[in-house]
Amino acid sequence: MDRPEQAPKFLNLLQISLPPGGLASIAHRISGVLMFVALPGAAWLFALSLQNAAGYRAALGYLQSAPVRWLTLLLVWSLAHHLLAGLRHLLLDLQIGIGRERARASAWAVNLGALALSALYLVGRW
Question: How much is the pTM?
Fold first, then answer.
């Protein structure tokens, strides 16, 4: 009895050459996790800012610290990428841009668009 051949398993993501759609897909999942993990901190800062004037000043102080600025830049990338990739997936579900070249171009647009939106935030913030 012949055994079906198993597909080779090579799971080193640093050596796999993923197409742009694969990168967009993985980054879409990572960006969703980052936003989910950031929710408690964002809720805490929001609650702190609504307590009183001193709480508002304290929240502003946290937001102006260097580590939190870098974290907000990461979260802006996360939001931008997740939004763009979600729109791309919706269009693909509607059979728009499903051809190989268009799908590849839309994946590049998502990957580069999120970086561009993050750079715009960075220029406006600092």
Answer: 0.82
Dihedral angle, C-alpha 103, 104, 107, 111, nearest 10 °: -170
Q: For residue 10, give both structure tokens.
A: 């090579």
pLDDT one-digit tens code per residue, 43-73: 999 999 999 999 999 999 999 999 999 999 9
Please give the structure tokens belonging to residue 55.
């709480």
The CATH number of the structural domain formed by 20-125 is 1.20.1300.10
CB 78 within 8 A of CB 35: yes
Asked whether the beta carbons of 97 and 91 are under 8 A apart, the reply is yes
In the chain, where the domains are located: 20-125
Q: How far apart are CA 67 and CA 72, in angstroms?
A: 9
Q: What is the token pair recorded at 39?
A: 């929710």
CB-CB contact of 48 with 55 (8 Å): yes
